[in-house]
User: What shape does this take?
Amino acid sequence: MPLKREKRENAPRASEEEFISEIREPKRTDEVAPGEMEQALYIANKIAEIFLTVPDDEMYGDVLKLVLEATKSKYGNFGYITKNSDLVIPSLTRDIWDQCKMLKKEIVYPRDAWGGIWGRALVEQKTLYTNEPLAVPEGHVPILKDLVVPILHRGAAIGHFQVANKTTDYDKSDIHFLESIAKHTAPILHARLQRDVEERERKRAEEELKKRNKELKRFNKVAVNRELRMVELKKEINALLLQLGEEPRYKIAGES
Assistant: This one.
């Protein structure tokens, strides 16, 4: 969902330049307060547990729920990037889907459709945030504050966390915390995505094998029927030769 500034009547607005300056690029650091680190490790362990135990259709939503609660955010999403560079967002906040009145809702965004703050965060592989309202498509829920952290693995973006509408402003504490969560999630998400790719390849191979086996059975059936028909024809020829007082031409298995 490409995000821009939302226009609101009777609300003071900053200039476009001032707004862009509010989408800051915080310095990435591992300097997280002990209490925050402990909480981040707890959340990271819970995420790992979810990846291992929760079915695919619930997993992303459960992870997002943890992240939203930890960051005190109302809305958000947790997406991953496919081999084709599509961003897939299976985890849109569960109540946002009904609240969103957009005519066209998508959960798959091709690379050329990436935009707004989250698209820039993924392309530049940088954490971005703003505490200013964003313009959104007609019918979309209002986005008043936004924080996007790309999930990076071996120098490549493989997904992202996006949280929005915290009651208070997003600050360095939120940024460090969510970056720590993303850092711990990266290898787990990468392994899950690789497993999914291998699972799809396995299923594709199984389907191909079933198809080939079916073709082989059909061929064998045709071949067997052809062979049986050949035996019948040989018997008929032999019978005709006997009627003509001649010796049978073909030896038939099982006949003396």
Residues 1-23, 101-105 have pLDDT under 50 and may be disordered. Residues 78 and 161 are 5 Å apart (CA to CA).
